[in-house]
Design goal:
Blueprint (H helix, E strand, L loop, with lengths): L1 H25 L11 H18 L3 H5 L7 E4 L4 E4 H14 L2 E4 L3 E5 L2 E11 L5 E12 L2 E8 L1
Antiparallel strand pairs: 1-2, 3-5, 4-5, 5-6, 6-7
Length: about 150
């Protein structure tokens, strides 16, 4: 009798753990994303550089990835800044969120424009939390740059 009860408890637990393992295995980060074509490869490379420059607190490197005409949203009240204005704001934004992680992207390319939707994980003293984010990109002079983003 105890053997039957034990089996009834173990089987659902094993099933749950297996399902969890499969689901977690399917969740990827930007780093693990496999581009389907050269456009996606270039876009992934741009966003990996964006993530890397942010996490290494490289303000100039991060700013270089933004288009000169960019309108950059920042803060909880979602103010907009030009790239030149953001140069003075970015150090404080990085200080407020020193580590970020970009999740698996959903990339949509249309001509010389692209939208990349993903979850951005922010870490702070409360722990990490995810923010749905969309990067809007533009291709000019043979390269991609960030023209705006929303979260």
């Amino acid at each position: 009798m105890e053997d039957v009860i034990m089996k009834k408890k173990i089987f659902p637990a094993l099933l749950f753990c297996s399902a969890l393992f499969i689901l977690v295995g399917c969740v990827t980060t930007l780093q693990g994303y496999k581009p389907r074509n050269s456009n996606e490869g270039a876009i992934k490379a741009l966003l990996v550089r964006w993530e890397t420059t942010w996490n290494s607190h490289d303000v100039n490197g991060n700013l270089a990835l933004w288009n000169d005409r960019a309108k950059i949203m920042y803060g909880l009240d979602r103010k907009l800044a030009t790239k030149q204005e953001y140069a003075n704001i970015l150090p404080e934004r990085i200080k407020a969120h020193p580590t970020i992680k970009l999740g698996s992207p959903r990339i949509r390319v249309s001509g010389n424009k692209a939208d990349v939707s993903l979850d951005m994980s922010l870490g702070d003293w409360k722990g990490a939390y995810k923010v749905p984010t969309t990067f809007h990109l533009v291709r000019e002079n043979g390269g991609w740059s960030i023209i705006s983003w929303e979260y």
